[in-house]
Amino acid sequence: MDDAPGGRLAPAVVRVEVGDGRAELVADPYRPSAWTLLIEDTAQSHVDLADPTHLEFEYVRRTGHLLDALAPAPPAPLRVLHLGGGAWTLPRYVAATRPGSVQRVVELDGALVELVRSRLPADGLGLDVQVVDARAGLAAAPTAAYDVVLLDVYAGARIPAHLTSVEFVTDVARVLRPGGCYAANLADGAGARTLHRRRTPLDFARGQVATAAAVFADVAVVAAPDVLHGRRFGNVVLVAGGGDGHDLPLAEVARWVAADPFPARVEPGAAFAAGAEVVTDATAVPSPRPPHGFFGQ
Questions:
Q1: Is 28 a member of any domain?
Q2: Helix/strand/coil (H, E, C) string of the chain?
Q3: What is the CATH number of the domain that holds 124?
Q4: Full residue range of the structural domain in which residue 111 is found
Q5: pLDDT tens digits for 28-63?
């Protein structure tokens, strides 16, 4: 039996133990060549091997719109540092939409890398995959080496604390070229589980935006309106960059995400983060736990 993902006789589910627990590749019943990666029942990535431009998850689609809007426009190549690998959804997207791009994927879980490499191959894309902690991989990156840095790292459905501080974001700025862009996938909102009883919805996301604003000239967030209003838990894409005459293409991103099948809104960082404090290595905490049942938790 052919058990390669994308084959007609492939198994519906592939289960493997990785560093963060049980990983599952689940076949998409509606797209024969597509698979969803879950780790400990938390959906991490969706990949269509036959069509890498198909982005299933809402927040990934919003990041894709951002990548498309960055200058120079597609199909010009970019240099991209991906902190967090998953199933390499966005590296595949960049390779398809901007051929010749130079990309490095930093992923701590070596067993996960081997699972993706063997079951969801990305042959010919020229990806440089580094098995190391995201902050260590960032620290080792050359100065002014990348056009884009993307952060999407979760451990137990939470962003580790050491990837949330102003010291971390300062190092992100160091590796970006002039006019470069930083984007981070955050998760926050109503129903988040935390030990802080006085917490209000989006406190974590607001702190992350305030922290990015301490380093970058332009900061914004992209999310569904009900998430931005704190009515439900969900993904918030933080976007940062600008300065020295380089503006982020936020107006273009706003048009695209508003017209998306999963509509979203772009909100300026200053308004979103009003009153929030900058996070440091000394004060950093992981992102809040999602509500019961969210992300499969």
A1: no
A2: CCCCCCCCCCCCEEEEEECCEEEEEEECCCCCCEEEEEECCEEEEEEECCCCCCCCCHHHHHHHHHHHHCCCCCCCCCEEEEECCCCCHHHHHHHHHCCCCEEEEEECCHHHHHHHHHHCCCCCCCCEEEECCHHHHHHHCCCCCEEEEEECCCECCECCHHHCCHHHHHHHHHHEEEEEEEEEEEEECCCCECCCCCCCCCHHHHHHHHHHHCCCCEEEEEECHHHHCCCCCEEEEEEEECCCCCCCCHHHHHHHHHCCCCCCEEEEHHHHCCCCCCCCCCCCCCCCECCCCHHHC
A3: 3.40.50.150
A4: 53-289
A5: 999 999 999 999 888 999 999 999 999 999 999 999
